[in-house]
Amino acid sequence: MNKINKPKILLLTGALGDGHNQAAQAILEASRIIRPDVDVVTVDFLEWTHPYLHGVGKFCYMQWVKSLPGMYGYLYRKTRDPNIMSNLFKRIKSFSIARMLKLLDEVQPTIVVSTFPSAAAAMSLLKANGMTSLPTVTVMTDYTDHSYWVHPCTDRYLVGSEQVRSALLRYGVASGSISVTGIPIRLSFCERQDRELLRERHGVKGNVPTVLVMGGGHGLIGRELISLIKLQRKAAAARYILVCGRNHKLRQQLEEEFMHMRQSVTVVGFVDHIHELMAVSDLIVTKPGGLTVSEALAMELPMLLYKPIPGQEQDNASYLVNLGAALEAKNAEELQEKLLGLLTNKTSLLALKNRAKLGTMKKGAIHALDSILGTARDYQGPVWQESRQAIYANA
Question: Can you name the residues that pair with 113 across neighbouring β-strands?
């Protein structure tokens, strides 16, 4: 371990979906506000280990998930628990050991934190082979468990719920190595918002419900949803805010599509004030990514989850539905029915909102930072030996 007085965190993330990066940024933001004495260096693990191929790999992964979700879901389920297949996948070294050692040498961290499972695997392998003795922390970014997050030389796991903690215990992870911190989200989602002031700022007028629709960058806002919004206007008065992210083509298309409905439909691209849009909204229609739903929980915003991809999205959806903070629609017909029901029944919206209050851990980023710094401070060498044997025994 690097013996320096000032703590230095190396945050390893990955750009397969936005959640891993958002969790890393939330921890970085918390450190700047709460602990400005701490150095934090954020590195995209995929970009660092595959500088020429990471873009192609990201594109292929996203196309695979969108085009063949059934296959993705099948492999996800088959490798969920430690078994021969999952252990085989985890033993495939998909990174350069030399580049990882170079990174550690250049950054000289006191602790390494991974919000991306492949990065956690790489650090575990380095430790198992005696190439580093740095303490390592894994931040799990969904409300579910999977064997690809669990590695024998990880010192601490930060998880979003007691349900995930219980699952890790079944994998053989030591109880003392798991902290339920909540999923790290930006602190702006945890602050009290002046709803009326924000409604005025964003031009949200009238007493009709406001529906925030997110997921344009990943195909949620398609033809069926566009048609549904037009139909819903006749059945229930509502205002819609459509967030297209970095999908510029979609934004242009929707602006033309709803040109004559600007009083009731607002189209935006990528924005850094999603917390404000959530604050003025009465309902969010979205894909159940771990970070998005954590932000909605923190804002006590009722959720209608649409077509979750088999795998972690479906698990997130199941968690939130069981919590009572969300409804799930598996197809356009269910979406229309449940959206109309929520827009015309304020009691149902209030019930979802009240359940969201019970399920949120608003200060996940602060709790995560405290746990990370505590792990670095108290580290006396490997604490994972017993867990390591149990995890290997389950594989």
Answer: 11, 137
Q: How confident is the model at residue 69 (pLDDT cuts 50, 70, 90)?
A: confident
Q: 43: Cβ–Cβ under 8 A, 6 or more apart, which residues?
A: 10, 11, 12, 13, 103, 107
Range of the domain at 284: 188-359
CA distance 211 to 239: 6
Q: Compute how many other C-beta atoms are within 10 angstroms of the C-beta atom of residue 209.
A: 18
Confidence (pLDDT) at 360:
78
| Dist CA 189 CA 184 (whole Å) | 11
Residues 100-123: tens digit of each pLDDT: 999 999 999 999 999 999 999 999
**CA 346 remoteness from chain centre:** 29
Contact 300, 277 (CB under 8 A): no
Say how many domains are in the chain. 2
Name the 3-class secondary structure at 120.
Answer: helix
Question: Residue 25 belongs to a domain with what CATH number?
Answer: 3.40.50.2000
Which pTM was predicted?
A: 0.88
- Domain check: are 114 and 220 in the same one? no
- Tell me: pLDDT of 392 over 60: no
Is the confidence at residue 26, as pLDDT, over 50?
A: yes
CA distance 139 to 342: 34
Structural domain includes residue 2: no
pLDDT for residue 1 is more than 80: no
Q: What is the rounded distance in angstroms from the CA atom of residue 359 to the CA atom of residue 161?
A: 9
Q: What length does the chain have? A: 395
DSSP letter at 192 equals -
| Residue 340 tokens, joined | 């109309």
The answer to the question of residue 1 being in a domain is no
- Report the half-sphere exposure of 188 (CA within 13 A, side-chain side): 12
Pairing assessment for the beta strands 136-139 and 111-114 based on DSSP bridges: parallel
